Amino acid sequence: MSAWKQNRQLELWIVWWSMPVFYLIFMSCYFVVARTMPPPPPHWNPAEILHWVELRHAGIELGYLLFFLTIGLPGWHIGLIGVLLARMSVSPAYAYAYIGTMAAGTLPGALLNGFGYALLVLRPDRDPRALSFLYEFANLTFVGTMGVFFVGSFILVVAILLDENDILPKWFGFACFWNLTTEFTVAPAWIFQHGPMTWTGGITYYWNMVVYGVWQILYFVVFYQAIRRIPSRLAA
Amino acid sequence: MGTAGQRICLWTAPAVAVIWLVCFFVFPGFTAPLSPRLPAEAVAAFYADPHNLARTRYGMILFNWFGFGFLPFYGLITVQMKRMAHNSEVLAYGFLATATSAATLLSVTILFFQVAAFRPDRDPAIVQLINDMAWMTFTVPVSFLMAQAGVLALAIFLDRQAEPVYPRWLAHLNVATVLLLAPCVLASVELDGPFAWDGFWSYWVRIAVFGAWVVAMFFAALRAMGRSA
Questions:
Q1: Distance (Å, rounded) from C-alpha B181 to C-alpha B195?
Q2: Domain count, chain B
């Protein structure tokens, strides 16, 4: 057998490395290539939406191509978190609940935004009412997907705080709780069209992105440390 | 030979495959996929045509029932992956998560087709929008199948035992699946040509690749079950 295959936890390391790679591509698609983030305002009329979309036409096409190519990878990351949860003292139920919940999360949380923008640029000459719908569909679903991540975070919080095997640090459990609270602060995006509580507002969008961004970086670090401590199943 | 429960999971796969094949021939939009170039009026006329309408409604009701039909088979593959000599279950769990996401996408596609056929006298611009959403959801998110086949390929390559659960050639087949599916994402930007959602690659090659993958996985799972206690 090749020496590299003997590496303890090789599978987990491959999956771990796919995380920073994926999130770098994911964030670049939105903020650099497509420039659909930060989101434009909800009160625009179809002519304003169309003008804004046409300025970014090629960027949105390329950005979302990369997005569509890689968006399956978080499924691997769910597997990694599932392994960590299964090793905690709480119950394997938390691992299975997390895998089930988060496997459903990519569709409302990211893909619907991708479909909305891809359909906007694919047929910019479509009926203005349909154009407005796609624009709102893309932005509202991205910012306003709450329940799936609420449950995902809840599972992490309870499992980490109750765990006696110290798989993940307790402070990360509190960080997950902090992240969970943003699932409530984004809710006004479903109601307001002006001000700080719209889908692009300071309270809803920007605060959420700050908390999520910090949490995401902590996530890479604590998982890296956790993998180093996990014994191999093969050694048993 | 596996437990009775495992054998049921295995044999649901060919049964579901036959039902999917029936759906393929019943819905006229599958045997002759609708071009993204069709004007809104033509798309609305497709659904309003009484012959197409009945076949769309009944074909999609059947497809809706069995859209998640491969999940028991995927559950069996997950169990077989857990028998592989790996350091942890990460790849098996990753397979289950990606397979679930891929099935969810298909079920959403079916719902869009059904909504389009529910009220075919709707404003053509709205019928076109719903039809666009169906084809976009059906064609573009191949990344889940790619991640599903990719994690399986990795698992087979890293199965460190004298008699691996699946043969090595199946890992290569899964890598080929990933590579062949990747160009289908171009359906999000192309209205014509082989990569449009009705194109040779994004439609016919994608379906053929998935079909070949299911057949190969069925026989691999059958063989692996035969060798387990």
A1: 11
A2: 1
